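$ ./design --mode recover --in tokens.txt
reading tokens...
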């Protein structure tokens, strides 16, 4: 997937359209990402005696389709589509329109 953890993305579709947030996790098997502050759901938890936690309602972000988000480009000031480009044997993500690098510059650790 071209979207990675800790990327800043903007939501393109749905009730949270236009919101920006950081990617908390990526689920490539299902083509989904979890974005901070986007697609918030309320999960009802039952009290658990083995794990001392109070029951109640917890709000947390739910996965959203990766096709519904675009990587945020500070240089362009909007969400952009990206493609992979090889420079000196290293793969990096670049904007499809401008060809400028987008997102974190590091490769494997991100």
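writing sequence...
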């Amino acid at each position: 997937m071209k979207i990675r953890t800790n990327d800043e993305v903007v939501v393109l579709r749905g009730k949270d359209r236009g919101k920006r947030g950081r990617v908390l996790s990526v689920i490539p098997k299902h083509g989904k990402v979890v974005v901070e502050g986007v697609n918030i759901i309320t999960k009802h938890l039952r009290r658990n005696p083995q794990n001392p936690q109070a029951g109640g309602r917890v709000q947390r972000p739910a996965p959203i389709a990766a096709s519904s988000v675009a990587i945020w480009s500070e240089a362009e000031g909007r969400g952009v589509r990206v493609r992979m480009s090889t420079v000196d044997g290293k793969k990096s993500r670049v904007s499809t329109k401008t060809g400028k690098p987008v997102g974190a510059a590091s490769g494997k650790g991100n």
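exit 0
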